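User: I'm writing a short report section on ligand binding and want a predicted complex to refer to. Could you take this sequence and NAP and write out the structure as C-alpha cells? A short remark afterwards would be nice.
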Amino acid sequence: MVVYDTIIIGSGVAGMTAAIYLKRANLNILLLEKNIPGGQINQTPAISNFPGIKQIDGVSLSLSILDQLKNLGVETKYGNVIDIKTGKIKTITTDLEQYKTKTILIATGRKPKELGLENEKQLTGRGISWCAICDGPLYKNKTVAVVGGGNSAFEEALYLSTIVEKLYLIHRRNTFRADPILLEKLKQKKNVEFILNANITKINEENNHLKNIEVNNQPLNIDGLFIYIGFEPATKIFEKINIKMDNGYIITNKKMQTNKKGIYAAGDVIKKDYYQITTAIGEATTAALTIKRDLE
Ligand code: NAP
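Assistant: Sure. The C-alpha cells for the complex follow:
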C-alpha cells in the first residue's frame, strides 16, 4: 500500500491551498473530501475582500482553485473519515477505503449551526435553506426570513433583498455582531424589516413543506427561511485520537502543528480570532511549509 507524505482531510479553501503548496514541493499527497470541494465558500454569494479580485462568488472561486489543483495533478478522493490510527505511519479509514500517510493536515472546517427546532432538518430544501446563493432565486418576489445577527446573516440578507419582495431579519438581541457597514446597508433596504429581541419558537409544515414560522409564539407567514446562526467545527472524529481542542476547535501552535506529532490543522477548524478566507489561506500555507520542513 502506498504511504503518502501527507493526506489533507477536507478540500475547502485551506485544504486546497495546502495541496497547491505541497504538490508544488513535490510531495506525494492525497486530498480527501466527503462532499463537494470548496467547503463553506460555496455558500458565499459575494466575496469582496479577496485581494486582487474586486468581487467573486464563492462557487467560482472554488472552481478556479480546483482547476489549479487539476493542472498540478493533485490526487483527490471522496470518502467520509470514520477512523484514524496515529503513529509514525498513520492510517486513515474512510467509509470507502483505507490509506496510509506520514502526516495529516486537518482542514475539515465547520458546518452551520442549527436552531434545533422540530421540522428544521426535514424541511431543508422544502422552504428552509442554508444557502442564499443556491436557493435565493426560488424566492423571487416572495417573502423570506433570515435568522441571525452576524456577518453571514447580514451578507445573505443583503443578497436576498435584491431578489425577494419582502425580507424579515430575525435576531434574538437588539445589537448585532455584524459589521456596522452591513447594518447600515441593510437598514437602507426598503423591503427589509427587522424583528429584534425575537426567537423562532416553531417551524410549521404542511404537505412536507414549510407552512409558516412562529416568532415569540406569534405566527409569521413566509415562503422561505434562511438560517445563519453561526458554525460548529467538524472535529468529532479527532476527539478519538486526543487532538487538543477548545470548544471543538483544534488548538495549533504558530506553525499549525497540533499536540500530536505529524498532525497539523488549518482554516476554520482551528481555534483563532478571525475566520476569513484570507486567514485560512495563510494558515494553510504555513501548515504546508511546516510539513515540508518536518518531513525533511
Ligand atoms: P456569528 O458571527 O457567530 O453570528 C451568529 C449569529 O447568530 C449571532 O448574531 C448569534 O446571536 C445568532 N445565534 C447563534 N445561535 C443562535 C440560536 N440558537 N438562535 C438564534 N440566534 C442564534 O456567525 P457568522 O455570522 O456565521 O460569522 C462567523 C464568522 O465569520 C464571524 O467571525 C464573521 O465575522 C465571519 N464572516 C465574515 C464575513 C466577511 O467579512 N465578509 C462574512 C461572513 C462571516 P448573538 O449575537 O446573540 O450571539
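A remark for your report: The CA atoms of residues 18 and 86 lie 21 Å apart. The chain has two domains: 3-112+232-295, 128-227.
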